[in-house]
Amino acid sequence: QVQLVESGGGLVQAGGSLALSCTASGYTFSSGVMGWFRQAPGKEREFVAAVSASGASTDYADSVKGRFTISRDNAKNTVYLQMNSLKPDDTAVYYCRPGLQLRGPWFGGWGQGTQVTVSS
């Protein structure tokens, strides 16, 4: 049973930074990809970033490339998303999810997410 707990969201001004964390349990964390997704009001949930099992490979959506950094600590069963130069369009609920490859398939369902709000 996969359990996912996201944290670190909050309110930040445009141009600011925020660091998200996701701690996973119930499976072998180190064996698979971890991804970050987000859902803004009135929009579909979208892919944000992913990191390979070892942390050696990453993938980013064009909208966040150069601003966000995904990383992981397998000893802590935790994946991180460092978000810099935040824009109001980054406002969304952010979710993590495990997968088999950098662009899926994804498994384990969704956690509760963490709200990120960027003010202008």
Structure write-up:
This protein is mostly beta strands and 120 residues long. It is built from no helices and 10 strands. It has strands spanning 3-7, 10-13, 18-25, 33-39, 46-51, 58-60, 68-73, 78-83, 92-99, 114-119. The chain has a 6-stranded mixed sheet, with no helix packed on it. Strand 5 and strand 6 form a beta hairpin. The N and C termini lie far apart (40 Å).
Features:
120 residues, mainly beta, 6-stranded mixed sheet, 4-stranded antiparallel sheet, 10 strands, 49% strand, globular
Concise summary:
By secondary structure, the protein is mostly beta strands. Helix content is 0%, strand content 49%.
> In whole angstroms, how far apart are the ends?
40 Å
Number of helices: 0
Global outline: globular
Strand content: over 45%
What is the residue-mean pLDDT, rounded to a whole number?
Answer: 97
- Major sheet, described briefly? 6 strands, mixed
Low-confidence stretches: none
Helix percentage = under 10%
Question: What structural category arises from helix and sheet content?
Answer: mainly beta
Strand order of the largest sheet: 2-10-9-4-5-6
The count of strands amounts to 10
CA radius of gyration: 13 Å
- Listing every helix as H and every strand as E from the N terminus to the C terminus, the arrangement reads EEEEEEEEEE
